Give the backbone structure.
Amino acid sequence: MQTKYTLCQFSLFILCFWSTIVVAQSCDIASDLLFRAYFLPAENQSVSQQKLLLTRSLQLCPNRPRVNSTLATILFKQGQYSEAAKYFKQALNYDKKLYQAWYGLGEAYFKLKLYTLSLEAHLQACQHEKDSKERVQNLLEQKRYLFTIKGDIIDKESLLVLYDKPRWQLLNCKVADCGFPSTLNVQPLHIFLNFDFRTGQANIDTTNQIIEIAKALQQDEFSIAKIHGHSDNKPFLYVSKDKSDELNFELSKTRAINIGNALIEHGVAKERLEMFGHGYTKPFFFSWLTPENKRVEIEVEYVFEE
C-alpha cells in the first residue's frame, strides 16, 4: 500500500527537519563562542567579555547546564545575585545532580536574604558539597530562616518552603539525609518581626507582607493557620502591673485578630484561621536581635492522611 501525505503533513515534516538543522547550527555557533570565552588570549581576557560570550552562547543553545552554572558564578562574583540565581536554576533544569549549581543557588539566595530558599537549595547538595553542609548547619542552628526582621519582606515562594506540605516534608527528609538530628527539624512556622506596631497600638501598615502571606496561605495542604500575637512588657500609665499585663495581653490578641482580618480581606478563608494573644508570656528567644517582644508568629497545621 502506498502512503500518501497531505500537504499539511509534508509541510510539517519539512518544518521539523529544517528546525533540527537550525538548532544544530545554532549549537555549533554556541560551541565556537564557548571556545572563545574559555580561551581568550591573556592580554584581551576580561570578565565582561567572557560574560557576553557565555550569554550569547546560551541564547543560541541554552541546554548546557555547566555553561549556565559558569555564567551564574561570574554574575554572583559581580554581585548580581538575582541574575545569578536565574542561571543557576536554568542549569539545574537540565541537570538536577549538578551539585555545584545547588550550592551557588543557595548562596545567591542567602545574599538576597531569602533564607528558607537558601536552606532548601543547600540541602539538595548537602551530602555532596562540604560548603553546603556548613551553610545548612549554620542556618539550622541559628534559625535565621525562621524570622523576618523589621524592614524586610518575606515573599510567597519563601513562605511556601514552610507552608506547602510536600516541600516542608521533603525539607525535613533532606535534613535527616544530611545527618542532622531531628531536634533541628524545620517547623511549619514563621516569625514576623516586620509588622511595625506602634507602642500600645494594633494597626497594621505592612500591606505588602500581608499580600505575600495571603498568597502563600491560599493552598489546600493545611487545615488551620494559627496566628499568635506577642507584646512587650512596657507598662501602661496610671494602672497597676496586673492591669498593665492584662492590657498587653489584649493588645497582642487584637494585633493577631487584625492580621487575620487583613488576610481574610486578601482571600484567605476565615474558617481556616485562628487568632491567639500571648502578651509577654513567651519572650522572644533571640533577645540580641530585638530588645522588644512585639511579633506575630504564623504556623500551619497540615491535613495528614491516615
